[in-house]
Amino acid sequence: MLHPRHAVQLLKRLRKEDRATKAADDAQLRLYAEVLGGDFLNYGYFYTPDIPPEKLSLHDIQQAQLRYGQLLIDQIRDRDGPVLDAGCGMGGLLNLLVAQGYSPTALTPNRSQIHYVQSKHPAVPLVQVRFEQIPLEKYRRHFSTVITSESLQYMKLSEALAMLEQILAPGGRWILCDYFRTCESTRKSGHRWDDFTRALQEGKWKVVSERDITRHTLPSVGYVYMWGRRVAVPVAGFVLARLQRKRPALHYLLEEVIDEIQKYLLDHLDLVNPEIFAREKKYMLLVVERGA
What we know:
Blueprint: H1 4-19, H2 27-36, H3 58-73, E1 82-86, H4 92-99, E2 103-107, H5 111-120, E3 126-127, H6 136-139, E4 143-149, H7 157-167, E5 168-181, H8 193-202, E6 205-212, H9 214-246, H10 248-253, H11 255-271, H12 274-280, E7 281-290
Parallel strand pairs: 1-2, 1-4, 2-3, 4-5
Antiparallel strand pairs: 5-7, 6-7
Helix pairs in contact: 3-4, 9-11
């Protein structure tokens, strides 16, 4: 770190890190896509929510993700109108929409997702910006259906609602499926449910249907948590123990960094602890239209 050449490279990387945005290049989402396969990044929907994680397989997770996608499509009222998949991920929902004869448009600012979706669906229009930056000169009052599947949580709520009002065609329908925070917590992912419902009321949005599917998403959360506890944490402990025994001087130099890595790993495991998730959040499927 003290060598001038390495110090310069470190500063360059720190500046690059500051400029990088999660939406543009999310390594965590890329990892999920590579591990799970099937092009879906959602939590899945399980008919039997009490199934223990030990009895699940990757195939079960993939089938649950397909059911989740179909559950969203079943809420579409206008089969012939244009559909926006806002936050399309790796294109799992697009696969279903195209196969079933819909006319989808994809949206993502994520570079990895852009390249993948373009290669798989070259005929599908792809908007390569954040949702709040959709070009209104092209898409004003354009979409009969807008779907936000686990993407609303990444958007600024007031700006997202304002954009939805602009791009939905008269009589259009917003289908959203996402988790919301129900209490104060150190884990800030997801909008506060109270803030969200208040914003809908103030914006005169009409909730056509509302369904709590939290229990039906928990098996996949429990599955990831199980493998994290049984594999990731023990393997990390093994590697660090080997480092301490084989390279004690290096272990000493990196001791504070190692402590931070262990804390980071355990904190992120808590994000997929199904008990904590169910206590602090709820996963909702809603169909919303503009009120009078």
